[in-house]
Amino acid sequence: MEKTSWLDLAAIVVVVIFLNWAQSTWDSYSVTILRMVGINIILGLSMNLINGFTGQFSLGHAGFMAVGAYTVALLTMPVAVKQMNFFMVPQAPFLANIVWPFFPSMLMAGLMAAIFGLLIGIPVLRLRGDYLAIATLGFAEVIRVVIVNIKPITNGALGLKAIPTFTSLWWIWGTVIITVLLMKRLVNSSYGTALKAITEDEVAAEAMGVNLFYHKLMSFTLSAFLAGIGGALLAGHLGTVDPSQFTFMLTFNILLIAVLGGLGSITGSVIAAAIVTVGSEWLRIVESPITLGALYIPGISGMRMVIFSFLLIIVIIYYQQGLMGRREISWKWIFSLFRRRSSEVKS
Questions:
Q1: Dihedral through CA 50, CA 52, CA 56, CA 59, nearest 10?
Q2: What distance in Å separates the CA atoms of residue 152 and residue 158, rounded to the nearest whole number?
Q3: What residues contact residue 107 under an 8 Å CB cut-off, 6+ apart?
Q4: φ, ψ dihedrals at 160, nearest 5°
Q5: pLDDT greater than 60 at residue 3
Q6: Residue 296 within any structural domain of the chain
Q7: Looking at the domain assignment, is residue 144 inside a domain?
Q8: Is residue 107 part of a domain?
Q9: Phi and psi for 292 in degrees, rounded to 5?
């Protein structure tokens, strides 16, 4: 086994020890935030795969998350819970008695989202730039509207309640570790090199023999799969899903993570997911009334998103590469940093 592989394994062990400590010592609110950090890391990486590494401006992630969330909900809910939810319109018979364990349900959620991604990607990935963004955003809205209207399957606008909350800290962060390792292997492979070439110059990449449409479609499908997994984990975390959760604002939050961290950086997405998740919770204070001595400041609903939107504007204008740009925190970089510091101390 290579040296870096042993170091990766050691890092995973450290993460497991930290999670065990957090699970046993942190309060439930802090653990909940840590769960959301993990889910947002997966979603940020899925967005970065298509927008950052492949250079295609896609805004359809909320739709893929909805597919994943509803799939895992319908497959894991007990029969009695399904009957309780579908009191207005009877549930479709082929779903009424299906109850799966969480793990295969989560994989099916990702697979269903990938199928939607494949079907959507075939027509829209022939578009570029703003046209692609508008088309994928439109498809995400179509998915949401369809969910509202196929009541025998999704329960319409009422959504699904009392979903089994299988999503634990271990499920989420185990998926995070697998996703990060998968992304790392993908980016460093010949396939990842082709994706980066498409990002830099599509004409030059095609001239070098890269099949543009095939690589874009595979990247888009894998991105949809990861978004579906993220949606499944979110449904298992919240215990409820409804169409109002999967609007453009959800896609905006994921896009903020990808842009803030750096389009084309795995490390950047991980860091930005932690910043955005913790920051959004901390900024709840601006939506609550504040009394400073004789000064009373009323809470303003939605102010958190105003602040985050302003943050995104600042990043785009003044720091377009994000926190990490395309750089990664690797073992090679860490060792070179230590050697540099050591030489400076000796001199």
A1: 70
A2: 12
A3: none
A4: -120, 130
A5: no
A6: no
A7: yes
A8: yes
A9: -115, 90
Tokens of 292: 């400073």
Q: Enumerate the β-bridge partners of residue 292.
A: 295
* Residue 117, pLDDT score: 93
pLDDT band of residue 224 (cuts 50, 70, 90) is very high
Helix (H) or strand (E) run with residue 161 in it: none
**Nearest one of 286, 274, 271, 267 to 334, comparing CA atoms:** 267
Q: Which residues share a beta bridge with 241?
A: 160
Domain region containing 130: 3-247
Contacts of 189 (CB under 8 A, 6+ apart): none
95-109, 130-144, 290-304: least confident range: 290-304
Find the angle CA(138)-CA(114)-CA(31) to the nearest 5 degrees: 95
Q: Which two tokens stand for residue 225?
A: 């799969």
In tens, the pLDDT along 148-174 reads 999 999 999 899 999 998 888 899 999
> pLDDT category, 297, cuts 50, 70, 90?
low
Residue 150 domain-assigned? Answer: yes
Least Cα distance to 47 among 186, 217, 223 occurs for 223
Q: What is the DSSP string of 55-114?
A: ------HHHHHHHHHHHHHHHHS-HHHHHHH-SSSPPPHHHHT----HHHHHHHHHHHHH
Task: Tell me the C-alpha distance between 156 and 163, whole Å.
Answer: 16
- SS3 breakdown of the chain: % helix, strand, coil, rounded to 5? 75, 0, 20
State CA 83 to chain mean position distance.
Answer: 31
